[in-house]
Write a structure and sequence with these properties.
DHBP synthase; about 220 residues; alpha/beta
Length: about 220
Amino acid sequence: MEHIRLEEGNTEAAIARAAEVLRAGGVILYPTDTLYGLGADALSDDAVAKVYGIKGREDGKPVHAIVSDLDMAAEYAELTDDARLLAERLPHGQVTLILNKKAGVDTGIAKGIQTFGFRIPASDFCIRMVREFRNPITATSANISGQKPERSVDAILEQLARKSHSNVLQNTRTSIDVVVDAGELPERRPSTVVDLSSATPIILREGAILASDVWNVLRGEL
């Protein structure tokens, strides 16, 4: 497992290395604008399976992705007027949108489901990494499913090395290829998750954005 300490002056090199690993089907541990995430090619069955294995996540429980902008999202999801409105009016990084996937998008995080979930991060590092990679990247939190996400790399690796339920997880040091370490992240609320895949929007999780603000935007009041 390669460890890159993210510092002023090495951002470009860290992004290039992370994109290289992602193209090879590997997994990275990286800082987002909320928590540390497990990143993999969101359209690769094998890469996404590695992320599920690391987290001990149940099959069928969706994983979302980060995209660089709405244009990238539109390659994989059926963008609606409501989705564009929320993405444009609400702060980036603080809302995850779930939409119906486009026809033919059937691999990775879209395999076996009808939706594609994404957010546009506020993190400059994340945006630049996605642009370098040129594909969506998984953005699921770096923790064992059902356990509290940690905010430092050391604490994350310690948690991921433990048993999850009755199954022993893969050796973290061989299943995560590169760690991009930005130090301990500040405590932040996760993104608010809004399901726009049906006629009536549903707020699946209230996080950084208040539910009332989501409804105000959709009603044209914000």
